Amino acid sequence: MTKIMSKEEKDQYILDMIKQLKQEQTEFNTEKWGDMHNHHEMWGLALEEHEEAFEQLDWLHIHKLELWEMIKMNKPIADINHQLEIIVEYVLFAVQELIHEAAVYQRALDTIKNAPAAGKHTGADK
């Protein structure tokens, strides 16, 4: 017999799964591209993933507005369900991109060596 989880236990289980996905993505990135060289590289890669996540969220927002219009107009359930399927996919795409972003930061934590000490400048901003 399977124990039914509490909401808190289920939330923790989902968070643990997300952390595992982040770790797997980090390992993949490190194996494919090696160590990250500096924080500027990290920033550029993280920004790209962040922008991709927000693109997905923008599409999600558009489809949610369309869904609300469909609901208000009492459109057929098949049309509403199709819109819901689209929305679910955009949520998942956004989560995927956010996991990619988290993996960029984790790769930086795991691999950037000899970063400048706090308050010290690299000279890259000159």
Short synopsis of the structure:
With 126 residues, the chain is an all-alpha fold.
Describe this protein's structure.
This protein is mainly alpha-helical. 76% of the residues lie in helices and 0% in strands. It has a domain at 31-111. The protein is built from three helices and no strands. Helix 1 crosses helix 3 and helix 2 runs antiparallel to helix 3. It is flat and about 60 Å long. It starts with 6 loop residues before the first helix and ends in a 15-residue tail after the last helix.
Structure keywords:
126 residues; mainly alpha; 3 helices
Q: What's the structural blueprint in terms of helices and strands?
A:
Elements: H1 7-33, H2 39-72, H3 77-111
Helix pairs in contact: 1-3, 2-3
Strand content is: under 5%
Shape by Cα distribution = flat
Tally of DSSP helical segments: 3
How far the N terminus sits from the C terminus, by CA atoms, comes to: 64 Å
Share of residues in helices: over 70%
CA radius of gyration: 20 Å
Question: Uncertain segments of ≥5 residues (pLDDT<50)?
Answer: none
Main sheet attributes: strand count, strand direction, barrel closure: none
Please tally the β strands and state the result: 0
Secondary structure class reads: mainly alpha
Assembly type of the shown chains?
Answer: single chain
Element-by-element helix/strand order: HHH
Mean pLDDT: 92
